[in-house]
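User: two proteins, same treatment. go.

Assistant:
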Amino acid sequence: MKRTFEGNALNFLRYSSVMSNAHYDMAERYRIRHRVFGLAVVIATAVVGTATFGSLAENTQTGEVWIKVGTGLLSVVATVLAALQTFLGFSELQAQHKRGADGYSDLRREIDLLLMKYPDVVGVPSEPAIAALDAVRKKLDDLDKMSPTIPDAIYEAASAKTPVYD
């Protein structure tokens, strides 16, 4: 099978489209995870704060022991959730995937223009189109190195919804 300029450019175009979609999907997943954890922390700390003020305002009775224990446990849960939110770094991962997606999108547009600029290239190594395509390949390699890993399931889902260019 002989590779052509157009065939390689279309392969790069599809790959950059799939990777862009996959990174945008991952960024969205991490955005949601960050919000869910943040919401859980806010709710837990609000309940702890309310219960604490409520127990201070009332007289101590033997039936209130479970409220104090529950408040203490909820306080620990809120602390753990806040620590996990920081430790897991969902917002940072979201930003990394967003940068990767933007880079692949930019490259996809560059390949589109390259295909329009050189519609009749046959693939002779000395042609400027081949040098431009090699520059695209290098940019793809750099993006692959700097971008976070995409799980196989996310890549396959993005690939399934990305059209095949011919």
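Protein 2:
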Amino acid sequence: MASSFEFEAELRANTGKGDARRLRHSGLIPAIIYGGSADPVSITLVHHKVEKALQNEAVYAHILDVKVNGTVEKVILKAMQRHPSRPIIMHMDFQRVSESDKVKVHVPLHFINEAVSVGVKKGGSVSHTAVEVEVSCLPQRLPEFIEVDLTNLDVGQSIHLSDLSIPAGVELVALAHGSDLNIVTIHAARGGESQG
């Protein structure tokens, strides 16, 4: 269960709104690690280091190492609160993972060959209805992203979850619940119909 992202964290003794506000004011992010057989742990992270790491979208769909006072916790980023108007991360939730337990994670979709797709060449326009999908898998099987190839997509056609090429051992949560969602469609250009 390799990880290419490591966060340094400190244990947080005090909790509560006042303490959280004080931490954010001094450039720290209050956070929590929970799950597994251990008790939840309140921690703090350095804001500017986290902000830099988050520029890589892979952080959102990766096993992360959070180093707390010398001990490394294997986690996934489960939730993050941002300030509504300022570029500040207010709080982060990390969930512990183990190699033997499946995790549910939102993984980004990478749309490729959009400009050269059959429908776009005919003047159609691409409409994305999803930019990520929720997957369930063992941590070591977690894909960084799922590729969606639009090469053969024609005007009026869509790609659904069931059309995606999913790595072995990975399950799409929506499909498992019987929901085959549409994720991308090519519509005819307005004002005229594309001839096929």
